[in-house]
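Dear support,

I submitted the protein below through the web form. The confirmation email said the job was done, but the results page showed an empty box. After a refresh the structure appeared. I'm attaching both so you can tell me whether what I see now is the final result or a partial one.
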Amino acid sequence: MKKLLVLLSLFMVFMSLTACAKKETIVITWKQNKPEIDAAVQAYAKAYEAETGIKVVATSCGGDSCNLGDMLKADYQAGTMPDIFPIDGIAAYNDWASIIADLSNEAWVQQTSVAYKVDGKTVGFPVAVEGWGMAYNKDLLDQAGIDPSTLNSYAGYVAAFEKLDGMKAELGIDSVVSMVAGTSMNWVTAHHNFNSLLSNGLAYGDLSVTNALLAGTVDQTRLDEYAKWVELLFNYADQTILTTGNYDAQVGAFLNQKAVFLHQGNWVDGNLTTATFKMAFAPHGSSAAVTDGIFVSPPAWYVVNKDSKHLQAVKDFLNYMVTSASGQKYMVTDAGMIPAFKNITLKPAGQLSQSVQAWVASGKVYSWDQYYFTDAFRTNTLGPIYDEFAQKKITLTEFEAQMTAAFIANKK
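What the results page shows now:
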């Protein structure tokens, strides 16, 4: 009898320890690069824990206040790499290839055509589909008698900008364009605007210009047309916002109808929820020829750290985001993103996101090719050139010469 009691006691202790072990909280670390959706990210992390019991620690880093690349490098040195983090293209993939997990067998892969693939393996979960052109205030264009369909070439924009500039008082605007080019915002110029040089007017996926520039070969005619487009934007921008403004200042000028155009993408929808005017995207005017399309792609892809302590739980988290009602609501309704998965039927409420969807539906889209160049080249080499041009420290001719020299020096 005594032996039986001892055995029962041991069994109860064992069951108690097992139960405690089962109740141990799994923690997933998630870093993402869209600070404008941080509130939605944090809310979804809490909702996921409530639904699954798995804790998600989410950190947002991007924009003009935080460099995700620097943060990840510091994490790596400290041995605290997150379980999930974003890459924006091949250069970033190469930085972290040794720790990125193969996700080819995940269920969500069958629901998207824009997963990130390398050597036949699926390694990246598309965060969303995003796009940008020149966002415009349709009400102000109507008031000025300008048809948005004419905004598809350099000449079309010159005519529109000159007319709008002459109607500043009547329209109540401070500038025609809300544009930034300062060092903390050079992702607008050296990342997004730069892509006009690379892919505007080309078939989707055409890398001819990109590959030539990577090889140090510059099409001077194309560069000259592009440089004039940059100069046009800079000349018709509020000079204070252009040279020293931050994200809030740039977007705020458009929201408050102090500028007719905004050089941003549909990710600003969350900042424009109180807008009382109609808006949409027009193509960039970086070419003398008509270019009838905008730039569309996943902005980034989530990759998974293959050395994660809870690898399966991390993979399950991404699948849940695609298949669950709460995950779909987070992506589309709360974060305002255009989903990259065909099983998701929700539509974003933002006008600019709806405009992107319309351009996609019409098949009028151009590639994002800027990420074939390293972040260091875009940020540290090209960024200061745009900044100097915006501050009028260099001329149009000098801008073109410095850009050309930069591509030659960067030759692969």
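Response: this is the final, complete result; the empty box was a page-load delay. The CA atoms of residues 215 and 411 lie 5 Å apart.
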